[in-house]
Inverse folding.
């Protein structure tokens, strides 16, 4: 099986983390969730969590999200520049991008991330379904609360530009979805093996 990193992108509540855990167990790969390591990943770029929280309290969700974008771009750029190197901490991992780390408001940043992601074979967009309104209902039912930014994440063109493959999770078990991802990884590994 390929040692290459696997990148999972998609909106909140789409199933990335659950699928990532299953394929991680199957492939003996570590699941790394960028959202869970946000503070440490952003720290080298001057991120101040207390200042970010103050923005949220005083200005609301959208300015808070915009503030995060500055650091998301820098952290993801760093990961993508290094995750293909065997000596790097991200090499060979399943990387769950969370909902925001694959969405870029700045077209130039999106273009640069697209270029950095191009060498990675296994970039998989996980979506409940194609229909945005239905996808919102599904993800909010899964999370049991309103997801204020999910409509934006679902409608934004970033994910479809970055993804090499898309899997839909509606009416499928997590195991069935994970098997779809594993099949993609196997086929890419076989193709790489034939080329080498």
């Amino acid at each position: 099986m390929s040692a290459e990193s696997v990148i999972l992108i998609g909106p909140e509540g789409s199933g990335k983390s659950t699928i990532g855990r299953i394929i991680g167990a199957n492939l003996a790969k570590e699941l790394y969730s960028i959202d869970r390591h946000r503070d440490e990943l952003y720290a080298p770029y001057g991120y101040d969590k207390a200042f970010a929280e103050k923005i949220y309290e005083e200005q609301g969700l959208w300015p808070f999200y915009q503030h995060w974008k500055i650091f998301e771009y820098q952290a993801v750029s760093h990961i993508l520049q290094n995750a293909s190197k065997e000596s790097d901490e991200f090499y060979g991992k399943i990387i769950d991008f969370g909902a925001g780390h694959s969405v870029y408001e700045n077209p130039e940043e999106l273009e640069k991330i697209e270029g950095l992601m191009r060498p990675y074979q296994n970039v998989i967009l996980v979506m409940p379904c194609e229909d945005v309104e239905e996808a919102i209902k599904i993800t909010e039912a899964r999370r049991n609360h309103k997801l204020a930014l999910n409509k934006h994440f679902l409608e934004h063109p970033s994910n479809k530009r970055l993804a090499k493959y898309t899997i839909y999770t509606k009416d499928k078990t997590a195991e069935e979805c994970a098997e779809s991802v594993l099949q993609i990884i196997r086929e890419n590994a076989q193709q790489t093996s034939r080329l080498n």
